[in-house]
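Final report, closing paragraph on structural work. Over the funding period we assembled a curated collection of sequence-structure pairs, and we close with a single example.
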Amino acid sequence: MKQVKRIIVGIDIFSGSNNVLKRALMVAKQNKAELFLIHAVQTPWFSVPSYFGGKEIAIDIEGITKKIEKKIKALNKDDKVPYSILVREGDADDILRYEAKLLKADMIVIGANTKNKKKFLGTTAEKVAHQSHLPVLIVKNSVKDPYQKIVAPTDFQVQSKQSILFAKTIFPAAKVNAVHSSEVIYVEGPYTVVGRDFVQYNEVAKACAEKDLKDLMKDLSVDKGKIIDGEANSKKALLKYIDKGSYDLVVVGSRGTAGFKALLGSVASSILRETPTDVLVYVP
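Its predicted structure, as stored:
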């Protein structure tokens, strides 16, 4: 499993919270990594084409840099994590992905960036998570300690196994709970297929899932494992299980990449948007 040594951190200087910086510093300290703090300034459209008569707006790069420097120095005075500060003009999601590739980064850390209390994920964070070619850690909560309780939904495929291994590598002190939602088939009414024993099918499917989970826990040295009854909606069952478990972090794996776009499955996308817990999206 590749080590994390270069971390891109998306910074919003207008946010009153330092949670993204605090979490990035913790991850960097645990992995002896270097941070690249990036603030993207979106240039107003009316200032760009001067031939329309708009006045060019000067970006105070030096002032923004000093503000970030002040924050990082206050938080980093004990650990002395190495860092660089970059201020760029453009859309935040494009800038973060471009700089991540240019700097040969191993991971991106970003805040949820939402001001709506009923919404757990902002537009920028969602775009970065869906389009990044790197693992993305989305910080949604206040930061006090390193992650201790991690839940990893799994379908037993390669991507979910890799996501668990990655989480264990960068958060070695955390306990991981692998969970699989077994979707049950319910068939009744006038269109039920004669001769099909769906009760027996469900029992066999659950037994296979339990064996797969046992093998996964052994192969990956996972602390805990759980098969939950997904009934007719595995996404809803998983979200309910995650919310009740008081976990620090949810780890999900992407299904692969197409160009630079990570194709998250529908379950992973729902977890990303709907859980209030921090989320790590692993991209192989």
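The first helix runs from residue 19 to 31. The two ends are 10 Å apart (CA to CA). We thank the funder for supporting this effort.
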